Amino acid sequence: MSYSPALDAKRAKIMAYWLFGVAGMVLFMVFLGGVTRLTHSGLSITEWKLFTGWIPPMNETDWVALFAKYQQSPEFHKMNPDMDVQGFKGIFWLEFIHRVWGRLLGFAFFLPFAAFMMRGWVRMSAPLFWKLTGLLVLGAMQGVMGWYMVMSGLVDRPDVSQYRLTAHFALALVIIWALLWVGMSLLQKDPYDRNHQDAGGLSDASKGLFALVFVTALSGGFVAGTDAGFAYNTFPLMDDGLIPGGLFDYDPWFMAAFEDITTVQFNHRLLAETTFVLVMLFWFKSRGRHLHPRSRHAINALAVMAWVQVLLGVSTLVLVIPVSLASLHQIGAVVLMSAALWCAHELRAPQHVA
């Protein structure tokens, strides 16, 4: 990715740090969403108010009215039939903060974008304008996807669809990826030439690792969506073996990877272990290579984060999904993906000049 030559380095740096800041806000949004799900708070608000909903209940009358709407949901009837207004308040606040943070995130992106347009830093004829507009569209899509996900838990069963949950998480990852990539491209327009580093073979490998981390993270979404993490809480064995019994024992078998708890968890383990091994091999392969210091930092960060993520994943599993560790493991997936993206950006192959 590149940006308009009319932008000087100072303006590019300001806009890059703005995009990094928005990416940080999306990361916190992912954290809030994970905690909201793990505490079973995500279905507490049964309406989506696009332009209102900024103000929480201000008096007991408001609370009673909101609780009455919640009492019509399947979650209340099947899981919380004894809940009173005070109990409802306990699950309301996380979902409310999650939604308000999403609105604030939209303003944090749109208002500076509009300001940069008015100041002439971003011109409609420049590629950067279309990249930022695309990010704005992705953000709007994520809001719609979030409500589409919640709707799946308001009909028959008190749980959101694992497909919609994973799609919601995937779109969040894509938004963070796009924000970081555009921001990094503002700071470093062109890849390093061969005099600065020898990235032969590492460039393609970094792209493959990024794709693998992304797929592994999505498999974690299916683990969360099916509550598969609450089964087989041992490591490295699963059902007393490296390969559990009943794998793909599902009708139809090809849906087992998305709906069968045993297969879903096994796939996530296999992908995570493969990712870890390949990241370590990537790190060893990079040793002794002549690389730019920033590329070296990116590779080291990826290796360190791979260790951290494995430790978080195993701890979360064997301790039977404590909220704190599970939330950190989800954030770790995003950070690991970001480190892989950083590597891919730093190791881009220089363009051939005719």
- Strand residue content: under 5%
Radius of gyration based on Cα positions: 22 Å
| Major β-sheet annotation | none
Give the helix level as a range of percent: 55-70%
Strand/helix succession: HHHHHHHHHHH
Count of domain modules: 2
Overall mean pLDDT score?
90
What is the tally of beta strands? Answer: 0
* Structural class by SSE content: mainly alpha
> Counting H and I runs of at least 4 residues, what is the number of helices?
11
Tell me the overall shape.
flat
How would you portray this structure in words?
- The protein has 354 residues and is mainly alpha-helical.
- It folds into 2 domains: 1-189, no CATH class; 194-354, no CATH class.
- Helix content is 67%, strand content 0%.
- It contains 11 helices and no strands.
- The model has no long low-confidence stretch (mean pLDDT 90).
Task: Based on the model shown, name its key terms.
single chain; 354 residues; mainly alpha; 2 domains; 11 helices; flat
Topology (SSEs and partners):
Blueprint: H1 9-38, H2 60-70, H3 74-78, H4 85-118, H5 127-151, H6 162-187, H7 202-226, H8 256-259, H9 261-286, H10 293-318, H11 323-346
Q: Short summary of the structure?
A:
The chain has 354 residues and is an all-alpha fold. It has helices at 9-38, 60-70, 74-78, 85-118, 127-151, 162-187, 202-226, 256-259, 261-286, 293-318, 323-346.
